[in-house]
Design a protein that fits this description.
By secondary structure, the chain is α/β, with parallel strands linked by helices. It has eleven helices and 16 strands. The strands form three sheets. Strands 1, 2, 3, 4, 5, 6, 7 and 8 form an eight-stranded parallel β-sheet that branches. It has a six-stranded antiparallel β-sheet with strand order 13-12-11-15-9-16, sandwiched between helices.
Length: 365
């Protein structure tokens, strides 16, 4: 069975998981079977859990990026194709990953061109960070992390300016024009994965345009790239929480957890790539997100009340893994003093290793 494979990249906090969720539902309404693949340097992903809780078929490649575990990525594609009987697979690479055209798209075309139909490479971008990048800034990031952001845009076939609900119409029009001028080889589209505006246009361009996937390969300085990832501390944790086995309002807990964590990161002055949290109770779940200072914090869903909850925390922050670990622990300990007791189920904190792609093509296939 020939399967359409869509790779949707973009820097941390660009809204890729929300896009996967909304796109999958739109495609399913058309009678198509959809499989999703998430990716991270460690297991226990908020993204995977969130998609599963929304009844979507998902698998993940954890422990390394797609490009550094290319065969694992192929295994994941084949697995989710069988599991979901998928007509379409949408894959979300690690947010700090670039060089996708050379290390993923070209090998897919060369070795698996008869097995998968590859869509143009889409790169999502946060409009606020994008505007600062176009102005010559670093979007509040370390210069080497901002280098990754720029290279993601350079290698894209489609740039999707996401979160358009954050801008006025004239601001968005100007940003789209400036982006198209700077990255003239890409098709520039706008959308809000949150509201759904523009997603049908993106899906049509992705599914029907006939544009070559991975149509160009920019030069990548792997020393700068490696340091851009290494300046980020990564933490994935899963905990069980209760309030002395009393009935607890888990939405109130989530608000306290997210607010305190955002305040602690702001006070320390560390740039946030993203912080994602999901709190799951017996009744339902709520998901939170931080992509910068506390002003970027958002919480969606209702977890309701109950005696126990399971919480997954994923944090990517410009500091050492140990310091990030200490901040998250201190946040949870502060809440424990309010009788939100927690027990660690899984806990990982790390610094990504230097990227070593399985394949790297120097020319477009």
């Amino acid at each position: 069975m020939d399967t359409k494979l869509i790779i949707a990249g973009g820097f941390l906090g660009a809204g890729k998981t929300t896009l996967l969720f909304e796109a999958a539902h739109r495609l399913q309404k058309k009678g198509l079977h959809v499989g999703l693949i998430t990716n991270d340097q460690a297991p226990e992903l908020v993204d995977s859990k969130l998609l599963e809780l929304n009844k979507l078929r998902v698998t993940e490649v954890s422990g390394s990026c797609f490009c550094c575990n290319f065969e694992g990525f192929i295994d994941a594609i084949r697995y989710i194709r069988r599991k979901a009987n998928a007509d379409i697979i949408i894959a979300e690479p690690v947010g700090s990953c670039t060089d996708l055209s050379a290390s993923i798209l070209q090998p897919l075309k060369q070795f698996y061109g008869k097995e998968f139909t590859l869509a143009p490479l889409s790169v999502l971008t946060d409009p606020i960070r994008l505007r600062d990048i176009l102005d010559g800034g670093n979007a509040g990031l370390h210069p080497d992390a901002a280098y990754i952001f720029r290279k993601q845009l350079e290698e894209s076939d489609i740039i999707l300016i996401n979160k358009t609900d954050l801008l006025q119409a004239d601001e968005l029009s100007n940003l789209r024009q400036r982006t198209q001028t700077r990255y003239h080889e890409a098709t520039v589209l706008t959308a809000s994965a949150l509201t759904g505006v523009g997603l049908d246009e993106w899906l049509k361009e992705t599914m029907e345009s006939g544009q070559v996937a991975g149509s160009h390969i920019p030069e990548i300085d792997y020393d700068t790239y490696a340091n851009g990832e290494a300046v980020l501390g990564w933490l994935n944790a899963t905990i069980a929480v209760n309030n002395g086995f009393h009935i607890t309002d888990w939405d109130e807990y989530m608000l306290k957890l997210m607010s305190l964590l955002a305040d602690n990161l702001d006070t320390a002055g560390y740039a946030v790539g993203h912080v994602k949290v999901i709190t799951e109770s017996v009744n339902s779940f709520t998901a939170g997100n931080i992509t910068g200072t506390r002003e970027t914090m958002s919480i969606r869903g209702k977890a309701g009340s109950g005696t126990d909850a399971r919480v997954i925390i994923n944090a990517r922050v410009e500091t050492s893994p140990k310091t990030l670990n200490d901040i998250v622990r201190r946040t949870l300990d502060t809440l424990a003093a309010e009788k939100y007791f927690y027990r660690v189920l899984k806990w990982y904190y790390l610094q990504p290793e230097r990227p070593k792609p399985t394949h790297r093509f120097s020319a477009v296939v």
